[in-house]
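Q: Could you fold this chain for me?
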Amino acid sequence: MSLASPADPAVRSLLTYPPTLPVVREPLKISVRASLAVGLAVFAWYMTVGPLLLSEPDMLWPIETGRRILETQHFPTVDSYSWTMAGAPWMAKEWGAQVLYALAQRYGGWIGVVALASAAVALALTLIFVELSRRLPLAVALVADHVVVARPHVLAWPLFVG
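A: Sure. Below is the predicted structure, expressed as structure tokens.
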């Protein structure tokens, strides 16, 4: 049995970091309408499974932190919400998303929170779909992690695509 040599271009491409997808000679042309349809379908899906997005046990933490930032116009510096670390130094590192979730909850209730998280996930997955459709010769299926919850990090997903 012979093993492929690292000098082989196919093997060398697998050993590069970060791994790169091959660019198709003739990329698929995805229309803006198709991209919007994908985004709206993903958004609609996550809106229908809204309670699953709220299954995170400490979802009130980012909302309450955002509400406090809006009220005081300052970032909290101590932990006020946990039982074991109350009063300990703490930094609101996700303050932007916490404020957005607080505003969504204030003006839209829990549906607003679900809509905000759903919009972020839909935008991220649509951008992934558009990027993959440029590189893959066959139809591309969107694959979402089953652990999507309305948490601050979800709002950053669209920023990391592309």
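A (continued): Helices lie at 9-15, 32-48, 50-53, 60-72, 95-135.
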